[in-house]
Amino acid sequence: DQQVKQNSPSLSVQEGRISILNCDYTNSMFDYFLWYKKYPAEGPTFLISISSIKDKNEDGRFTVFLNKSAKHLSLHIVPSQPGDSAVYFCAAAPLGANSKLTFGKGITLSVRP
Amino acid sequence: DSGVTQTPKHLITATGQRVTLRCSPRSGDLSVYWYQQSLDQGLQFLIQYYNGEERAKGNILERFSAQQFPDLHSELNLSSLELGDSALYFCASRGQGFTEAFFGQGTRLTVV
User: Fold this and answer.
1) Taking CB atoms and an 8 Å limit, are B41 and A34 in contact across chains?
2) Residues whose CB falls within 8 Å of the CB of residue A11, separated by 6 or more in sequence, listed in order
3) How confident is the model over A23-79, as pLDDT tens digits?
């Protein structure tokens, strides 16, 4: 049972435009949500997170939006750059120190120059 | 550099064999997580240790086992290997007060 779903396996956008990566979850116990970026032959690196008490968190070109009623979150990248081309994983975890992170299958983002 | 070290980076072994993957977490991090990434499967949670004790278990096969030692490093043991065990195995660690986990570079296991 996939508790974190990234239904689109890939996304291609033009450099300078906005990239919108979507993620859905089913577990109401999830309390915070994270996005990771992964380049080939490297481990995932943390990008940005959001707590369930917020609906938006921004860090430079990256913004994560959370819609709790729809159990949906999205990552916006503006403007997109070729270096952003990577696999992006959405993850979620319940409240509690050192709870486990549940990941989606990932979305491959390609930013065209 | 995430501060999480995994060895070896690559491992090629035959079916039926046993291997040990090693993970050194970031300094001071008490939690260690193991994930498996197979083709098109995302990051599958295997097991979590916290300060030497098993904290959570995912879809880990009975042929697989793990432990966390007093110095907090962790080992993932895979035995009776099958072709389908070929995957990337990632270790991550997390510290108190952090929401995010930090990943190592992974071990690519190829079973032939």
Assistant:
1) no
2) A19, A20, A21, A107, A108, A109, A110
3) 999 999 999 999 999 998 889 999 999 999 999 999 999 999 999 999 999 999 999
